[in-house]
Amino acid sequence: MIANRTGKTVIRILWSKDQEEAVIVIKGSHSLADWLLNFAMWKRSCNDFGLNYSIHAGFHYILNQESQPTHKKDQLGLSVFERTISIASALIESGKRIAVTGHSSGGAIGCIIADVLEQRYPKSIKRIVTFGQPAIGGYRFKQRFKLAHKTYRICCDLDVVTFLPPIPFSYWHVGKMLWLYNGRIYENTPSLVRFGRSLVSWLIRPFSYHLMSKYIRNKDFFDER
């Protein structure tokens, strides 16, 4: 377990001696202070992480915040980023490959952690799967991120966080987007199309309840009487 500045667990790294894969699981925002970080929409350089691009300042802060020790062997003074990289590096050096998954801002910082590990240990990352993830960085980030072909962003219906930050052409997504909408999965649907379809669906939803199919679907209520 890896804790944040307040001692709350934000990252878990799971592995088994019998498995060749380890999994880094990252929580999203779970406090008002974390949610407010979403408004830090300026960019900060990732040179201190060994990456030649800039990302959302709020996500940079989450990675750079001091990590409170959770085990007796943990050292004081390490950041969330440093502690995660240290544990993951030891697992990679023992022969394991890494999968990364995270929700919301956890998905965003997971991409950065994975990119750093891939730079240091080529072909060490098996896949990245994120849920409801906001955009991370600018166009330079999009060009230099090495794991787009292994990254899958899962979006559900009109999840507003997946449209953040709301600054066109300033922030970019990476990887393949899988959109769960109306009982189907769509791949790489443009944001404007996704927003438009969701808005139309929301507007006509009250009228859809008038359809005979809706009454037929609920016929079991009458069959029980």
From TrEMBL:
Protein's UniProt name: Lipase (Class 3)
Q: Which GO terms describe its biological process?
A: lipid metabolic process
Q: Tell me the InterPro entries matching this sequence.
A: AB_hydrolase_fold, Fungal_lipase-type, Sec_MonoDiacylglyc_Lipase
Task: Report the Pfam families cross-referenced here.
Answer: Lipase_3
| Stretches assigned to the Fungal lipase-type domain | 23-167
Q: Which organism is it from?
A: Vibrio thalassae
